[in-house]
Amino acid sequence: MTQEEIKTTDIWELYQKGQNFMSKIYANTDMNFRMYNGDQWAGLKIKGVEKIQHNFIKKIVKHKVGTITANLFAVNYSPENIETNEFMEIAQKTCDLLNKKASKVWDKDFMNKKIKKVCRKSAINGESIVYVDYDETNNIPINEIISKNDIIFGDENEEEIQLQPWIIIRQRKTISELQTLARNYEVKEEDVLNIRGDSDLGSASGESAKNEIEDKCWLLTKLYRENGTVHFSQATKYCDLKNDIDTGLTLYQIAHYNWEDVEGSARGIGEVEQLIPNQLETNKTAMRRALTIKNIAYPQKVVNIDLINNPDAINRVGSTIKFKNVGNVRASDVFMNASAGTISPDSEKFQNELINLSTEINNAGDAVTGNINPESASGRAILAVQNAQNQPLNDQLIGLKSFIEDLARIWFEMWRVYAKDGLLIEDEQTDNITGQKTTNQVLVPQYVLEALRTSVKVDITPKGAFDKYAQELSLENMFTAGKIPFEEYVEALDTDSVMPKQKLEIILKKRAEKEKQINEYELQAAQLKNQAQKEMSYAQDIENISSAGNEMINQATASM
């Protein structure tokens, strides 16, 4: 049976309906990443001059992403709406254990790296999406970053993702992988063989993704709600893999981060799209200036070719042009250089103004990106400048925090629904006296997870370069002013501080060891002195007794 004779799946038909809307998104994605990566002359044919560009887009994006992700994030679950005091203690302990579980997931799934990537993709292309799957063997969520090209919303005008009527997620998979998956799902073999490769790569995100070695096709996952829970179905173009599976979850397992919201749209807009006009004009101005300079250095020639004996020599540097003997002919009648004009200083001024205005307006000028002399400014002053300049990024930081909170809620939902035999969590304890660490396996019963309703907080620790500098300088000032001793100053320093905390701790350790030795010597000296004093006192007592004895003998002798 040919592909034309095979009926396409219902999910594929629904997916195709969204392609008209998505076509603009596909085009914008390619353009945004090209502009960010420096391929800013794509599709343009220019002869006679190099394609010059001053890529300030990347500078702005990298600065803003770096500013936001300079913070460290941590998931913190806390209980709420607890009706009884008896359960409150259980709820609080469970949240403490969940926080340890979330911390393990965060580290194991390299979430700090993923958060940076999410933020960068969103700044470049307007939005970023994380699709959360679940590893039932280890009871941990798996967080997969997907392109905005790979998600279609049932209502593209609805900004809140949890209110979507349905969502389709597409993933590019190899044919062998999908056929194995279908057989594991017990799909009929005749239907398994309908999973075939395609060349539908025009909408793939990135130029590299448009070239494949193995045969692949799209796997479509449709998420939707029925009776208060999320269901899903999976299909390729010609084969249904799963139909109407109840996940038990009340939340779509998707976290969505818009760089900037667009009114009346589920989609966002990033930095790049708004900077493209200025970037292109900057590049064109630079190219025009380069072309003018080239024409001045190598002007065009105006020649009467019929009066030249050796026309091949015209374009050779230093060659002699020989005229034909045709009578009284001036050189200017045969050969001359065309006037190329001069470069107006306004062109350079205009080019620089475009770059400066684009960076300053987008809060990526010199004062923000690091061209501040920390030696001539206090830590507080530097931090104040930074904070003032970074105020426009508050919306993005708040949005990123909300995005991580959404992820944490999805994680809890999955633990609540899928840990049917209870959730096993490693509980590490440290002895306050000995410092020894012990790890115990604690089983949180499923009914406790079911009864627990959590509020999710995301703690943010400032770790930016200037934040750290300001903190360290404040500590140093407190120490210098005598408000804290040296030991407390060293203890308060961060492990990754500019001031070498480990070296200072070694100094303190050596100092403590010397003081201990001195104390031991002083103690020994005191003991020897005390012993000597005792011995001297004893000798004195003996002497006194001896003197008293002699006196008694003398008195007795005298009486006789």
Describe the overall structure:
- 48% of the residues lie in helices and 18% in strands.
- By secondary structure, it is α+β, with helices and mostly antiparallel strands.
- It has a domain at 500-560.
- It is flat.
- The protein starts with 9 loop residues before the first helix and ends with a helix.
- The model is unreliable at 373-379 (pLDDT under 50).
Total helices: the number is 17
Helix content: 40-55%
Structural class: alpha+beta
In what order do the strands lie side by side in the largest sheet? Answer: 4-5-6-7-8
Could you give a short description of this structure?
This protein is α+β, with helices and mostly antiparallel strands and 560 residues long. Helix content is 48%, strand content 18%. The termini are far apart.
